[in-house]
Amino acid sequence: MKAIQEATASEPLTLDEEYENQQSWRASHDKLTFIVCEPLSRADLASSAVRANVVDADDKMRGDINFFMYRDDPDGDQEDGDGDGDGDGDGDEQAPTNSQTRLRGEIDVMIAEKGHWRRGYGSASVAALLVYIRKNLRRIIDEYAAGEGIQERQPQMAGLMAKIQEANAGSRALFQKLGFKQTGEVNYFGEVMMVMSWEEAERLVDGWLCSGGEVCREVGYEM
């Protein structure tokens, strides 16, 4: 448990705090959370829906993956690439108009048991999340904008980031393999920030989708 807390920079919660936390996240407009489970059986893979407490029974759960939305701060902690606050330093990001809010998404993935580390759960989860965001971006941004009271032009996604403990070599390698790059130095909390422009993320996902393989598929969830 201590190793998980250190790897995820998290603190232990009481049961009441955990329930309150889960209820808050479910209703939040700026967060997405998914449970990472054991891969489906061949029979389940062919189905258009999965059943609750079967594919996600306690013994099938492996961890979780979260996506947090923020207003991008080009002069603050969420800067990209070369540290000059203009994205990832390669001129790839579109310049928004003065009335357009820029957003940045943070990815946080946790595989709970050490015995399940380095077995592909983390990389598969991040890949599936990227595909989900790519396909549902407009709906995700609309929900965020409504919750924040943003009434000007629809916000624009600037990029993605992940904050990782410097000692967590596995997670750093996972994001590097996907194309994320470290920006800046280790912060006060012992974390490094890894970033990717949204245009790079789109190209990555579109390449997967055009390759003919199936990275992930959305199915029904039957109670």
Plain-language structure description:
With 223 residues, the chain is of the alpha/beta class. It is built from 6 helices and 8 strands, in the order H-H-E-H-E-E-E-H-E-H-E-E-H-E. It has helices spanning 2-8, 15-27, 42-45, 121-148, 169-178, 198-210; strands spanning 31-37, 49-51, 61-71, 102-111, 156-165, 181-183, 191-197, 220-222. The strands form 2 sheets. Strands 1-3-4-5-7-6 form a 6-stranded mixed beta sheet. Strands 2-8 form a two-stranded parallel ribbon. A hairpin with a 7-residue loop joins strand 6 (181-183) and strand 7. Helix 4 (121-148) packs across helix 6 (198-210). The two termini are 31 Å apart. Residues 79-91 have low confidence and may be disordered. Keywords: Acyltransferase, Transferase. InterPro entries: Acyl_CoA_acyltransferase, GNAT_dom, NAT9-like. Belongs to the acetyltransferase family. GNAT subfamily. This is N-acetyltransferase domain-containing protein. Pfam families: Acetyltransf_3.
Which SSEs are present, and which pair or pack?
Layout: H1 2-8, H2 15-27, E1 31-37, H3 42-45, E2 49-51, E3 61-71, E4 102-111, H4 121-148, E5 156-165, H5 169-178, E6 181-183, E7 191-197, H6 198-210, E8 220-222
Parallel strand pairs: 2-8, 4-5
Antiparallel strand pairs: 1-3, 3-4, 5-7, 6-7
Helix pairs in contact: 4-6
Give the helices and strands as they follow along the chain. HHEHEEEHEHEEHE
Spatial order of the strands forming the largest sheet: 1-3-4-5-7-6
Largest sheet: 6 strands, mixed
Strand content: 15-25%
What class would the helix/strand composition place it in?
alpha/beta
The CA-CA distance between the termini, in Å, is 31 Å
Count of individual helical segments: 6
Task: Output the radius of gyration.
Answer: 18 Å
Helix content: 25-40%
General form: globular
Mean pLDDT: 84
Uncertain residue segments:
79-91
Instruction: Give the beta-strand count.
Output: 8
